[in-house]
């Protein structure tokens, strides 16, 4: 279907974007929310209009599941679940208000508590303080499956329209999901936030693909393939954080460290100087969409450089509920009952 981008890839307006490299307030929902708001305020004061946060910044990435047996992890995971963030909550409302006060689009990575389950989630909050996109990582990676469920089908719709351009979002190893990326590029992202946990130089043990160098390369490839700007946001981990999460002696990690934040141009060039891997900070770049037009003249992966007559993907982006009612009358009765329960308990559904 023909598409007219507005703003177009020839738009010459220059604006500032920000990639966050910061340590979470481990296992502390209130502390994490307060720090998130403070970072939004700092980036806004520097003029940032789009701000990207790391993966599960609230309440931190649970590296403990890779390093320990379940008996060791269980007390940490219980605390982790208690400090995860619900989409409909006073804490999320305060973050949305901070984005509104900052007049900035914020992409936040967080551990989402949905009923009795956790998900690796992102919300894109627009400059009016509204959640324009809520998504869950489509597949938990490796030992993440101990903690997190798979994302719902509609999570593949991960690009939104803003006044400054189309903003997309990906989490961690979604950057190497070829079919997801194909669908992502077909939504014509102009800027994307790649949210990442702390990752470390390869220590000689474990797969190289988990190293910070490999993860950085994965993100750069998305910028090149998509012909879009990449805001790559990462956590860092201090010695105190490693001890709290019981990973201080895990040989895959080298703490303090874990940060590899950067901002890529649509041709893959790096637009920022790196912070030290153990340092907290915010990286900024001034960008304009006309650089995308220059890049896509050479290769547009869903346009002039595609062959859908040879290769295409088939997509099902509709959520499936665990319970499905056979007729409309029964469905409405069940919905009314659920609303009654939710109202009595002060719950909300998304």
From TrEMBL:
Active-site residues, as the UniProt record annotates them: 55 (proton acceptor)
Signal peptide: none
Designated name of the protein: CN hydrolase domain-containing protein
Keywords, alphabetical: Hydrolase
The species this protein was found in: Pleurotus ostreatus (Oyster mushroom)
Similarity comment: Belongs to the carbon-nitrogen hydrolase superfamily. Nitrilase family.
GO molecular function: hydro-lyase activity; nitrilase activity
Domain CN hydrolase: 15-289
PANTHER family: ARYLACETONITRILASE (PTHR46044:SF14), NITRILASE (PTHR46044)
Record keyword Hydrolase present: yes
Coiled coil, from the record: none
Alphabetized Pfam families for the sequence: CN_hydrolase
Superkingdom of this protein's organism: Eukaryota
Gene3D superfamilies the record matches: Carbon-nitrogen hydrolase (3.60.110.10)
